[in-house]
Amino acid sequence: MDNQQHLISSRRQFFKGLSVAAAGVALPTLWNVPGAFADLLTLTPAQTEGPFYPTKLPLDTDNDLLIVNDGITPAVGDITHLTGRILDASGAPIRNALVEIWQVDHHGVYLHPGSDNGTNRDKNFQGFGKFLTSSTGEYYFRTVKPVPYPGRTPHIHFKVKRKGQPEFVTQCYIKGHPQNERDGVLRGMRDAKARESVLVDFAPIKESKIGELGAKFDIIFGVTPADV
Ligand SMILES: [Fe+2]
C-alpha cells in the first residue's frame, strides 16, 4: 500500500468510526482520535507527589487507616468512608489497579520523618493504605477527614499503579474548604474543569449515628498507547 492509499484507508476508518459513534454505539472505534472523549469525562489531572510519601511503608498497609494491625484504639478524627472508581476515558472500569493513599492525621502529621510536628503524630493512624480494584474498578478506604498543615489546604494523596503503565499521582481536596483558594498546588491547575474534578464532598452519612462521612473520588485516565 503506498502512502496515498494508506491515507485514504485511514480516512475511511476515521469516518466509519464517526458514523458509528454518531449512532451512539461502539465508541471505542474512536480511541485513536485524540481528544475524542474530552467532552465526556474530565481526565483527572496529575499532581505533584510532594515530599511525604512514606520512606518506609507501615507494617499494616490495608485499606482501613483507622486501625493499625490488631490495635483496639482507633485513630482520632472525622471517620470518612472514601470510595471511587478507576476508569478509562470512555468510563470503562480499570481492574487490578493498585490504589495507594497517604495523608496527615488529625494533628496534620504525616507518617514520614520529615513531617512537621512529628512528636504529635497519632500512633493509631495508619497514614497510608492500599487497595486493589476489582472488575468494577472500585476502591474503598476507611480513613479520617484530612486537616490543613502549614502551607497546604486539606488533601489526600493518591498513587495508582497499573501493570505496564507509568505510575499516576494526584490529590483530592475537600470541596468548599476555605483554604482551597490559597493553596498553591490546587490553584496551580489552570484548567477550571480539572480543578473542579479533584474537589470532593465530604458529606455526612445519614444512617450513621456517630457522624461518619462519605467521600467519593473517581480517577479518570486518558487513553494511553498501551490501552489502544
Ligand atoms: Fe500533602
Structure description:
This protein is an alpha/beta fold. Helices cover about 15% and strands about 20% of the residues. It has three helices and ten strands. It has helices at about 5-20, 185, 190-195, and strands at about 80-85, 100, 130, 140-145, 155-160, 170-175, 200, 205, 215, 220. The strands form two sheets. Strands 1, 4, 8, 9 and 10 form a five-stranded mixed β-sheet that branches. A five-stranded mixed β-sheet has the order 3-2-5-6-7. The chain is globular, with a radius of gyration of 21 Å. Residues about 1-35 have low confidence and may be disordered. The structure holds fe (ii) ion. Fe (ii) ion binds near residues 50, 152 and 155.
**Beta content:** 15-25%
Number of helices: 3
Tell me the Rg in angstroms: 21 Å
User: How helical, in percent, are the residues?
Assistant: 10-25%
The succession of helices and strands, N to C, reads HEEEEEEHHEEEE
Class computed from helices, strands and strand pairing: alpha/beta
Using DSSP, what is the number of strands? 10
Q: What hetero molecules are in the model?
A: fe (ii) ion
Main pleated-sheet profile: 5 strands, mixed
Gross morphology: globular
Unreliable residue runs: 1-34
Mean pLDDT: 85
Distance between the termini: 23 Å
Index terms:
228 residues, alpha/beta, 5-stranded mixed beta sheet, 13% helix, binds fe (ii) ion
Structure summarized in a few sentences:
With 228 residues, the chain is of the alpha/beta class. The protein is built from 3 helices and 10 strands, in the order αββββββααββββ.
